[in-house]
Fold this sequence. Notes:
This protein has 143 residues and is an all-alpha fold. The protein is built from six helices and no strands.
Amino acid sequence: MSDAHGEMLALAVKLATKAGAGETLTASQQMVANILWIDTQVSPNGFDGWLYYTSSERIAATLRALEHLGCLRVLELVREALAIAGVDPFRMPNEQREAQLDSLVDEARDRLSEVDDRFQEAVEDCMATCQAFVESHQQEFAV
Length: 143
């Protein structure tokens, strides 16, 4: 794990703690928190888990955050995972998204697993991009 990755995982904990304490995250903090949530979920649970445990609203916000920060390889993989799973976070309410994921056949889950493997290769660059973003917004991330 790179230094950027480790620092971003530590930041993920700080941001989650802040949000859990009822404090509102800034727009920049929320974008980074959404991206870091992917890593903390896909690493142990795969895209299957991230898609299930992440609201449609947060998935849509994560897509926007990945594009905004320039984590394009991860963005491409998220879009691929969404296509495999048949999930459209912009149009599906949470109940429909969960039902869709519950109905996935083994072949689709195997294909998602292949995307998981490629995610592990792409996430380091994304964490470095997040780190640069955080450093450029230093005051905002003094949590």
